[in-house]
Amino acid sequence: MKKMVQFGVIARNFSNSSAMQSAIKNITVIGGGLMGSGIAQVSAQAGQNVTLVDLSPEVLAKSQKSIGANLGRVAKKVYKDKPQDGEKFVAESMARIKTSTDPAAAAKSADLVVEAIVENMGVKHKLFKQLDAVAPEHTIFASNTSSLSINEICSVVKRKDRFGGLHFFNPVPVMRLLEVVRGAETSDATYKTMMEWGKAVGKTCITCKDTPGFVVNRLLVPYICEAIRLYERGDASARDIDTAMKLGAGYPMGPLELADYVGLDTNKFILDGWHNKYPDQPLFKPIPLLNKLVSEGKLGVKAGEGFYKYEKK
Ligand SMILES: CC(=O)CC(=O)SCCNC(=O)CCNC(=O)[C@H](O)C(C)(C)COP(=O)(O)OP(=O)(O)OC[C@H]1O[C@@H](n2cnc3c(N)ncnc32)[C@H](O)[C@@H]1OP(=O)(O)O
Ligand SMILES: NC(=O)C1=CN([C@@H]2O[C@H](COP(=O)(O)OP(=O)(O)OC[C@H]3O[C@@H](n4cnc5c(N)ncnc54)[C@H](O)[C@@H]3O)[C@@H](O)[C@H]2O)C=CC1
């Protein structure tokens, strides 16, 4: 049943993508990690020309490999009875993705830049300042930030009217939601273009203001953190906490599995940022166990260990 539902989601996303039109044709995705590679994939499979940028050529090679494998999964389902069409779909989608290690050069031909680099305000500021100086006048900038303020990120650029949040969910090819975040100065035209683009890449878009965590993370992150605290206190085992939320609340993953999946470093960046801004909010207080795991390099699935152990990919 679960498989059937997910098959439907991928197929629906794909057919929506083909049918929808967007003013955006050329997109540059900066950051080729977990999120950036997924954003590049859904854009390419919707017919957009994509440049995927990362500072590391190794990351780009790994991203291309995983995008190829994930497109293959989509093709197997959508073109179940027409394998040759499936091969063509994979080849054409892959051909739409170029890679680069030079963010400034890649921004020069973009209608839309989606930033998905590390969750750090200073690093994001440095990048956007550099891009603002070289990108064409019409280019819209968007951040996929999980928790930082869009207004604060865009404070370093001149094009504040052409800046917003496009917040995807992990795994991008499967999760159907896109949060479209309007900053204080995001223009109506930019907002409309971002909404249309989101639909064109097969997502259901919701709109939200520039508040901490937008909608999903404002609810999800405190929930994950409460689960870590519960485990830290020894109230239940990790397995039992996860089983409880899967079987008792119908979640597809338990909170500790989900924390490992998102990345414990990302969880910590989010919590620390909110704690610094809102020191009196008990839900945002630092968690010694989370800090310990991150300091030991146990970042979750991507590192081979977090709350659980994983086979390294
Ligand atoms: C931190 C933030 O800012 C915001 C966030 O992203 S918060 C995190 C939000 N995400 C979630 O909450 C995810 C919750 N988990 C789930 O929905 C599901 O467990 C899951 C979709 C990740 C996996 O589903 P599953 O049924 O347990 O696993 P699985 O059978 O391997 O996958 C189902 C299908 O999804 C697809 N899929 C799974 N992972 C995929 C990936 N990384 N890329 C592409 N497709 C994928 C596959 O097509 C797979 O089909 P196959 O049977 O052909 O392999
Ligand atoms: N992990 C998750 O589940 C989600 C994360 N996000 C957000 O998306 C962003 C990226 O997160 P992930 O993909 O998980 O991180 P990641 O660590 O997997 O990937 C980030 C990539 O950015 C690259 N990078 C860093 N600085 C760069 C620069 N200046 N120029 C080009 N590339 C650079 C790194 O080499 C790395 O490959 C963060 O802002 C995060 O908060 C949003 C939704 C979900």
From TrEMBL:
Taking every annotated instance into account, which residue ranges of this chain make up the domain 3-hydroxyacyl-CoA dehydrogenase NAD binding?
26-211
What is the superkingdom listed in this entry's lineage? Answer: Eukaryota
Which residues are listed for NAD(+) binding in this entry? Answer: 31-36, 54, 119, 124, 146, 170, 302
Q: Which organism is it from?
A: Trichoplusia ni
The record's function comment reads: Mitochondrial fatty acid beta-oxidation enzyme that catalyzes the third step of the beta-oxidation cycle for medium and short-chain 3-hydroxy fatty acyl-CoAs (C4 to C10). Plays a role in the control of insulin secretion by inhibiting the activation of glutamate dehydrogenase 1 (GLUD1), an enzyme that has an important role in regulating amino acid-induced insulin secretion. Plays a role in the maintenance of normal spermatogenesis through the reduction of fatty acid accumulation in the testes.
Q: Which reaction does it catalyse?
A: (3S)-hydroxyhexadecanoyl-CoA + NAD(+) = 3-oxohexadecanoyl-CoA + NADH + H(+); (3S)-3-hydroxybutanoyl-CoA + NAD(+) = acetoacetyl-CoA + NADH + H(+); a (3S)-3-hydroxyacyl-CoA + NAD(+) = a 3-oxoacyl-CoA + NADH + H(+); (3S)-hydroxydecanoyl-CoA + NAD(+) = 3-oxodecanoyl-CoA + NADH + H(+)
Sorted alphabetically, the Gene Ontology BP terms of this entry are: cell differentiation; fatty acid beta-oxidation; spermatogenesis
| Name the record gives this protein | Hydroxyacyl-coenzyme A dehydrogenase, mitochondrial
Question: Where does the signal sequence lie?
Answer: none
What SUPFAM superfamilies has UniProt attached to this entry? 6-phosphogluconate dehydrogenase C-terminal domain-like (SSF48179), NAD(P)-binding Rossmann-fold domains (SSF51735)
Q: What is one term from the GO cellular component aspect held by the record?
A: mitochondrial matrix
Please state every residue range assigned to the domain named 3-hydroxyacyl-CoA dehydrogenase C-terminal.
Answer: 213-310
Q: What is its EC number?
A: 1.1.1.35
Q: Which UniProt keywords apply?
A: Acetylation, Differentiation, Fatty acid metabolism, Hydroxylation, Lipid metabolism, Mitochondrion, NAD, Oxidoreductase, Spermatogenesis, Transit peptide
